[in-house]
Amino acid sequence: MSKELLAKLEQQGSLQQQEFLLLLQGRTTALAKYAAERARALREQVFGRGIYLRGLIEFSSYCHNDCYYCGLRRSNAAAQRYRLTPEQILACCRQGHLLGFRTFVLQSGDDSYWSDERLVPLVKAIKSECPDSAVTLSVGERNFASYQALRAAGTDRYLLRHETANPEHYRRLHPVAMSWQYRQQCLLDLRTLGYQVGAGFMVGSPGQTLSHLAEDLLFLSKFRPEMVGIGPFMPQHDTPFACEPVGSVELTLFLLSLLRLMIPNLLLPATTALGSLHPRGREMGICAGANVVMPNLSPEDVREKYQIYDHKLSVGAESATGLADLQRRLEEINCFVASGRGDFDPALLAVLQPQK
Ligand code: SAM
Question: 25 alpha carbon to ligand 1 midpoint, in Å?
């Protein structure tokens, strides 16, 4: 029954919510292995064996939000706060560009200091120094005019995890000042403005049930984002969720496989959280169907300070040695570093059309 549901998901790109739930409830080691094999085959058919790299620059640890799960939350007085200067951020991009990176992901807490007046010139400067590179922003909830200004400045992609498709579960994770509806609206605005949009969620966040995950899958099958970021929930010791259990690696891997079957040309990272939980976590993510890795390009002295959760992996590929290590790891699983920006490409699906 579950294998039939996997086949249906692959053929139709979606399932009913109840069917997603049945798949999640029916997960066994054997089913997950089979799903990963199908997902890997599909990824290879669409993308070949190339894995895209994104250089992650965590440029501010300030945040005015107070999400219960995140170490950067405003109420965490123990958090170490920093902001990189535009020059420092540009230097990270320059260094990454020399190493071959063609996408820079600028991520921060929801930091009001980074107004449009500051971010727009920064995006323009990166685009002018590295015109062959894509810029991805992951700077949280903003208004339509701000997203419009950042898009006009040259931003190509935007990562904003929906966090959960269920409004009650959203309330369990966020204070009343934050709104599920607003976050959903942000995703719609980003889509309207022509960004390549990334949604996503944590796996095993407090209060999350398999029914919630079925809702997440249904939401993603309808919204059809260009990118999806998922990773296990990891507790941070200075948050209200300090004592909550860590999310499951196995369930995360299964979900990665389902996402690949659902959207074959999806840009799907094997996230840092996966790499933080298991020494081979990122490779396992790729073997389950992911096709993107995001090594850290931030200056080494700030990496420890961007502590969204405990035990966060901070090794990157900012040096030739780091990059060579990553290349070797990818070769071990029969993959290689793909060159270029690695944009979302609807035309890639042509390989899946039956030959006339
Ligand atoms: N401020 C931006 C935003 O909210 O979209 C981007 C930065 S935020 C730290 C990036 C993502 O980290 C969140 O969307 C959340 O899913 C993830 N995250 C935060 N705390 C986490 C935790 N304890 N475990 C795993 N992931 C976490």
Answer: 26
